[in-house]
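Comment thread on ticket #2218

A.B. wrote:
> Attaching the input chain for the structure job we discussed in standup.
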Amino acid sequence: MSDRPTRLRQFFARLICARAGAGPRIEAAFAAVPREIFAGPPPWSISAGAGGYVVTPDGDPAYLYQDALVALDPARGINIGEPGLHARCLAALDPQPGETVLQVGAGSGYYTAILAELVGPDGRVIAYEIDPALAARAATNLHAWPQAELRPRSGVADGLPVADAIYVNAALTQPSRAWLDALRPPAEGRPGGRLMFPLHAPGGFGGMLMITRAAGPAWPARFVSPAGFIPCSAPQDEAAGRALTAAFADGSWRLVRSFRTDAPDATTSWHAGDGWWLSTAEV
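C.D. wrote:
> Ran it. Output below, let me know if you need it in another format.
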């Protein structure tokens, strides 16, 4: 019979994936990765939302297997993100066995390990973490997943390797050009690479936007879920942040269907950035 931590993980994975509408591959990946490895030594600080954190009374792993944020650095509000949100996003991004995935913002490596489970031993996960202490923790924690490589630097830089998918865990007011350039171009019979990142102002809320690279200036895009992440360590546009906050306020983000780099069309534009815009029109 399975040991108790394994049974806890299996039920946790089944529950969050059922709620998120994620399939068996995502469930199996969550069930395979022990969250306690990445949470650090107990006691753990579990998010209570606006009420801050509640500290666990001991090191029982059951406290970690709930759909809640677990603090990595409570003073800075850095956490292992909400599992249900990530299950929903990973189901949409759909990393496949053998693919190369870039992750920006690895934290202590928990979702890096889940990505590694999804791409399998023939795939590759290259994870970027700019915080030196977290990067060191992640490198140690990921020892059991040799297909995962931790790079202790920014993931918002030119020269990123070509990727089938890019999964960003820090918010920006615009997609990085480096990410768009790193997406694998479409080829005969297969679509291009996929990018998913949280689009919103620093300290605010917005949505997880998925963009699929296509030929031409119009690429399929949609918001997968509302989201609120710590800001990315990259230049942020304050005016764009204010405009995004206003745009998200009325729920119209659900209508976005494409990412475009041509001249904006006032009748279908949901939000226009610097050289790019989001449209409610299909590609």
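A.B. wrote:
> Thanks. Noting for the ticket: Helices lie at 4-20, 24-32, 35-39, 83-93, 110-119, 132-141, 177-182, 238-248.
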